[in-house]
UniProtKB/TrEMBL annotation:
GO terms for biological process: protein secretion. Coiled coil: none annotated. Residues 424-525, 693-725 form the RNA polymerase II assembly factor Rtp1 C-terminal domain. Belongs to the Tango6 family. It comes from Colletotrichum spaethianum. This is RNA polymerase II holoenzyme cyclin-like subunit. Residues 544-581 are annotated as: Disordered. Residues 549-570 have a biased composition (Basic and acidic residues). Pfam families: RTP1_C1 (PF10363), RTP1_C2 (PF10304).
Amino acid sequence: MAVVTRIITSPPATILPEDWFSKVAPQLIALLDGNEGAELSTAAAQIIMFGVLGRKQFGSPGWNVFVEPLLRNLNPSRKGTGVAGRGKTEGTDFVDLSEKAVLVPADEIFVTLRRMSSLINSTPYPAQTKRMLDPVLPQLWAISCQSKGNQQTEERYSKPARSLLHTFLKLSVSVSKLHLVIENLLYEGELMTAPRWRYQTTSDGHLQISAIPLGHGPQLPELDWNEIQVRSESLMRLMTASCTPEEISSFFLELLGRWLQSTKSAKKTEVLLRAEDSQSGNEITQLLEITILQKMLERIPDKLVSRVTQVYELACQILDPSAIQDQPDDIVAVALSLLNLVITAPNFKRSSLKAEVLQSLETSLDILSKSERSEVSPTAKNLTLLLRYREAIDPAEEDAFVPTDRQVEDRRTYKLALEYITQADNPPPIRSEGLNLISGLVASNSNVLDVQATLVLFSSLLQDSEDFINLRIVKLFIQLASKHPKATTQELLEHYLDAKETSTTDVRLRFGEALVQVIERLGETFAGDIAKRVSETLLSIAGRRGHRPKTEAKQGRDQRLRDMKKKQAEDAWGGDVPDLSDDLTEEEQVKNEILTQIVEGWESKRGSEDVRMRASALSVFSVGLETNISGIGPDLVSIAVDLCINVLALEREIEKGIVRRAAILVVLGFVKALDAAKQSGRRLGFGLTDQSREDITRTLKYVAVTDNDGLVQQHARDVIESLEAWQLSSMVPSNIPAMEPSIGRLAGLTIDQDRSLPSVNTKRPRIEEIE
């Protein structure tokens, strides 16, 4: 898939990216629409989102070709170019609005929403998702509210738009985005600015975009109180499903602060000159904000106050001593209620308040207590006493643990990440964002993470069938291994060994891949108990004596079931069941029989370990040898080499070819590790004796000639060549200076050097006369 993506998304040097993508786009869009099946639709979405939009050099051309036409189908006011746009307006820069024409037909809106859903829900790319949906947030909101009880409109248009909105708010919810929705709560199209158009539902339940004739002047959206109530309810449901309690609380406090500010401004008697349209627009927005504020108080009161600090700041802002007397009783009552929530919170401590803030608050409460305002004075007096004697009410409060702001934020992040990851109905971008949050906590070494619980979570996610989750989880294992290597390797080994026989071979192989990358990440620290435990587990899996009783029982049941079905078929046919498959040549039949024998032989017989797992274990051990052979130790290395030689000599079946390949690679890894240690000057404390080398070479030469697997033969010849090269290099001492042009000495052999070389520093020979 990666190779295909690279080929399709790499324009030749002689062709402009715009021209290349313009030619490729129709084919990819046809695949995206599912004309060739769901798998190719997912592949096309992956190519577009990652290969095109995810690459910086092709982001702009790819956006104009693939995304901009979709956005213009939802918002005709956008200007851009693309190949997937509407046939009527393609190649033109203007639209004839002299009559009530259909700018975007219903079918194109439906196809647009389907394509956007395919691109987003089939790929795990939060950044591209936010970039794609952000420009059409008001339009998606308007489409999601168009059903009005019509089932066809709901299924074809409103439901997909609402799903996209849900994904966008989960990924990038902020106060500004929610305010944008409120400002466009009654959005029906572009009614004020040219070109003017609006969404229109036909009598048969289809949704289209129609132009507003030029004779009709600009107008604000009509205020339909019933429509305001319906859309307010829809926004409440959307916020509850998409936003966290902290986000809802922040939005509520922001709206409340705006309302309080508007009440202050209403008291000022000033003459302001404003445009009529601007005045009407602002008043409509204030009305919508107050309506949403009231709905939040009615529908979700339990989620409105989750950030005590923000509530406290807002209450102190209202109860400013310099302006407390001018505040009306209803606003002061709201502030006192908020302050009561803060003081009675379990984690509130009087000592945590700043001295000047505490003094200002006590002054305001004292002023209110002594005033003759019957609605607020008793409450202010009670809060004064509660604030003064708060620590006396709870004597243990002084020594109670109060989490820091960082710990509170990390806990919220962790909770949100778990919600994103574990909810099965979340689309891939949201689950990917949850993994990003977990990755950030791991990278910052947050103490909110329970290492063992996090490892259990990662292990459960690694059993997921989604490839993007598996790849991300492997990276998270690597991150966690750098800080907690022992716990991480132990978790991976338990699932790789699968002593309880609860996992499939594919799942176990995923843990093996994670274990390989963790070993490579540990590097020189792969030693001691960690290396010993990993090596022993790998060798126990790779050995021929592994027994899996549950697997054996399951294989017996499957075999009896196959025999029963075969007998039933023979009884039905009155003899042998005829072969109804396509006619094959004799050569093809032989190949199929060999492949069938190999595949069937992989699964263990008589309850022994699966051949694929044995080959995987040897491959992982080979990586460990090359990573840090000294950390594994001579005993385990010797056992591993003996095991591999026995595999090559005794397990000659055709289905055991992958095990023999892995065994030869272990021997090769052993030779490479010895050579690397010699080149770096490390002393391992053990090596390869001449007798052992001769035994290994003799076995490999036999395998290179007689094995029934061509790749095994080639590997054997490569290892023989490496052994001979290592033998020659071992005869040369490793401490020779790099600039010396000749061999100074050979181990175990004294030779005379060429005295003409400048490196030889000897005296001239003396001639003595002997009588």
